[in-house]
Amino acid sequence: MNTPLPTTSKLPVLVFASTLFLSATLMFILQPMFGKILLPLLGGTPAVWNTCMVFYQTLLFLGYLYAHRISAGLSIQRQIQIHTVLLIVSIAALPVALPANIDPPTDSNPTLWLIAILFRSIGVPFFVVSTTAPLLQRWFSKTGHDKSHDPYFLYAASNAGSLLALLSYPFLIEPNIGLSHQRLLWSAGYAGLCLFVIGCAVLLWRRQPTAAEPSNIEVEPAEFAPLSIGQQLHWLALAFVPSTLLLGLTQFISTDIASVPLLWIVPLTLYLLSFIVVFSKWADRIHPLMLAAQPAWLMIFIAYSFINPAVLPYWLDLILHLLAFFLAVMVCHGELARQRPHTHYLTHYYLIMSFGGMLGGLFNTFIAPFIFNAVYEYPLMIVAALFLRPGVFNGESLKNLIFPALLLVTGLLIYLNTNALFDYLDIVGGALILMAGLSYALRNSPVGLGGLTAVILFFTIGLHNLASSTLYQKRSFFGVLSVRESVIADENQRPETVRELYHGTTKHGAERLTAANITTPLTYYSRPGPIGQLFSEFDQENQQWQIGAVGLGAGALACYSKPQQHWRFYEIDPLVVEVASNPQWFNYLNRCAPHAEMIIGDARLSLSKEADNSFDLLIMDAFSSDAVPTHLLTREALTLYFSKLKDDGLLAFHITNRHLAIKNVMADHVNTLHLAALLQEFKPETDLPLVVATDWVVIAKTPERLQRLQQSRLGRWQKLPITFDMQPWTDDFTHIIGIWKKE
Q1: 565-593: per-residue pLDDT in tens?
Q2: How far apart are CA 105 and CA 44, in angstroms?
Q3: CA dihedral defined by 393, 394, 398, 400, rounded to 10 degrees?
């Protein structure tokens, strides 16, 4: 005979909430942990994270679908039996790890390959974890507890666990626990979760009456009014827009604002925080405030972050974007929470939410890169979020779309005449700022506000593209690549056209177009700079060197080549090779090293296949936007490089970075591996065009090999700093925050 607990007992709430908290914690520890495991395969591009998010959202949807199907058609006892079997089977998938002997494709987009690897590696345990939130909330609604009529408060506990895990990973877990131990601890935590879920099942089972016992559990009505298609589509849109907005903002700020390490954590933190707030007891008071704040902040956001972003420092621009994003998702998720249905439709409601999230990820990963040549899905979803404000179906609001429509038609006519547009560029810019201010007057009309914002953003993006003199722009898995023209003053203060290569907003190379300078290496690779000094000092002995260069850029390094040398470039992005090899855009490769080999793929994987002791010089110049992928900076990576170098070979490492003191990592490796190294933090002393400040480290097996550089009069070479209490970077351990620049 069952002995149910009192309906006011705190034990069921504690057990169910703790289980949901643990489940969400495990889910959001697994995501950055496995992303780190994947890093050596595809580098540090934001698209890797976005693709992983699609996988997570897809598994989340499948988990919610499973929870919906078994809870809708099976008895409680049968649900518990089936789910217990699933838990036991999933244990066989532990510990989580990558399959052996896998290489990403180099001749096609690796998105589908990456998703397949994720399914093989963590598909089963992640699926089980994803079932927990809807299934346990549904189970709790059947316990007869006095809070079981509205179990949605447990969703806040779940998202609190997600938020805690997300913030604890970079600040607590990553600095103190290596990847191998993280995998083992996660597996142990997963086993603990299985026991917690079984504990919830036991509590639920005890609440089910036997045939001889009367039931004190509230019985749901036999018939419920079916959910309307419109209501379900509205839920879908309210989940879809924040999902795609999250991924779009992450990619936008990582490539167009600042390539700051760990920056992707901030939008995801705000996204999770919104769920905690809207399903909390304060939601009814906070939601009206969010609705009022969104259009007010929108004026400032559009005026400064889109129309005139150059006037702001990057950190302030970042704050504007993050606050606008937070207000948008708070409004969407607030409406979603406000419209939550009776617990009879609980799993159906969560299923639609997860489906919307999955569609958002699929749109950003599989559709947007093929229809947009930049991250245009981000401003598009800013507008979409405005259309989802309450009142969108009010007929009066449709009248307010007439003004934006007239502006759009008028603007299109002007836009088609580019010369006329340039004649009135200042007037158009001022008008856009004025319209951004006027948008607040439409705050009570979602259609009018969204329509006017769309017009402003359309013209703003178009104006910036024209002003930047973009000649070519294309988007690949690894980011947005563009070729632009600018005008500089030459040595005689005469105007001169320059061709520049950008990855996002980070310049990856430049070329002067005059006949006398078209093959002159510029920016980080200038002849007065460290890499130019290295070639100059070893000029007499490098006639027949075998040289490998990781990272191609515009191809400027190729102009240090000599006829008898053999150059091999390693580049992860085929689009970069396509652009740098095309003389329509850049001439370095075509004129200086037309026979250089191009190896497509991750540098470590490609170099591991090369013969040992085969290179005289290896140049490491791999950057994703403004960041060096961390797997190229580990002790194992450095050991690999030197295994491919001859005994007197040199390793030249480009470490320029605004945020990270990579020289400390290099110094620790040099000391641990008993190597010799020199550093130059170069700052140009003259105003030579496109000669920029840059930091390089040159490493050799013996100090004698570097003596020529140390005694050089061309630059100030010095020893690397001495590091104290620094845990070495390995494939098992890296810690970004530990090398953050303090100045």
Answers
A1: 999 999 988 999 999 999 999 999 999 99
A2: 16
A3: -130
- Sign for the CA dihedral angle at 142, 146, 149, 153 comes to negative
| Residue 88: count of CB within 10 angstroms of its CB | 11
For residues 443 and 563, what is the distance between their CA atoms, to the nearest angstrom? Answer: 67
Gap between the Cα atoms of 325 and 328, Å rounded:
5
What is the DSSP track for 159-225? HHHHHHHHHHIIIIIHHHS-HHHHHHHHHHHHHHHHHHHHHHHHHHHHHS--TTS---SPPPPS--P
Say what the pLDDT of residue 211 is.
45
Crossing angle of helices 46-73 and 346-362, in 10° steps, is 160
Q: Strands 694-700 and 676-682, how do they pair?
A: antiparallel
Report helix, strand or coil for 503: strand
Sheet holding 479-489, edge to edge: 470-476, 479-489, 495-503, 506-512
Angle 498-426-469 (CA atoms, 0-180°, nearest 5)?
Answer: 20
Half-sphere exposure of 264 (CA within 13 A, CB side): 21
- Which residues are CB-contacts of 462 (< 8 A; sequence separation ≥ 6)? 415
What is the spatial distance between Cα 514 and Cα 475, in angstroms, rounded to a whole number? 29
The Cα angle at residue 639 between residues 634 and 643, in degrees rounded to 5: 150
> CA-CA distance, 335 to 137, in Å (whole number)?
20
- More confident site: 611 or 454: 611
- Residues pairing with 506 in the sheet: 503
Between CA 221 and CA 211 the distance in angstroms is 20
Specify whether the CB–CB gap between 26 and 129 falls below 8 A: yes
Q: Helix (H, G, I), strand (E, B), or coil: what is residue 697?
A: strand
- Structure token digits, residue 34: 């496995």
SS3 content of the chain, % helix, strand, coil (to 5): 60, 10, 30
Encode pLDDT of 293-337 as tens digits.
998 888 888 877 777 666 667 778 888 899 999 999 999 999 999
pLDDT higher at 282 or 147: 282
Which residues, in sequence order, are CB contacts of 185 under 8 Å at separation 6+? 177
Task: Write out the two tokens for 355.
Answer: 């489906």
Per-residue pLDDT tens for 63-78? 999 999 998 878 888 9
**For residues 357 and 354, what is the distance between their CA atoms, to the nearest angstrom?**
5
Among 97-106, 528-537, 721-730, which range has the highest average pLDDT?
528-537
| 8 A C-beta contact, residue 615 and residue 649 | yes
Percent above pLDDT 70 for the chain: 85
CB count in 10 Å sphere of residue 316:
12
Give the tens place of pLDDT for each residue, 182-214. Answer: 999 999 999 999 999 999 999 888 876 554 444
541: exposed, middle or buried (Cβ count in 10 Å: 0-12, 13-18, 19+): exposed
Please state the pTM of the whole predicted model.
0.78
Closest CA to 63 of 136, 120, 160, 159: 136
Place of tokens 């050596």: 40
- Residues written for the chain: 743
Give the CA radius of gyration of the chain. 29
Q: How far apart are CA 465 and CA 484, in angstroms?
A: 10
Q: What is the largest CA-CA distance in the chain?
A: 101
687's tokens: 């105003």
Which residues are CB-neighbours of 438 under 8 A, at least 6 positions away? Answer: 452
Do 395 and 401 touch, CB atoms closer than 8 A?
A: no
**What whole-number distance in Å separates Cα of residue 287 and Cα of residue 334?**
6
Under a CB-based contact definition with an 8 Å cutoff, are residues 393 and 447 in contact?
no
Under 8 Å between Cβ of 135 and 110: no
Q: Which residue ranges form the domains of the chain, and what is each CATH number?
A: 7-211 (1.20.1250), 228-467 (no CATH), 525-739 (3.40.50.150)
Does the structure show a pLDDT above 70 at 428? no
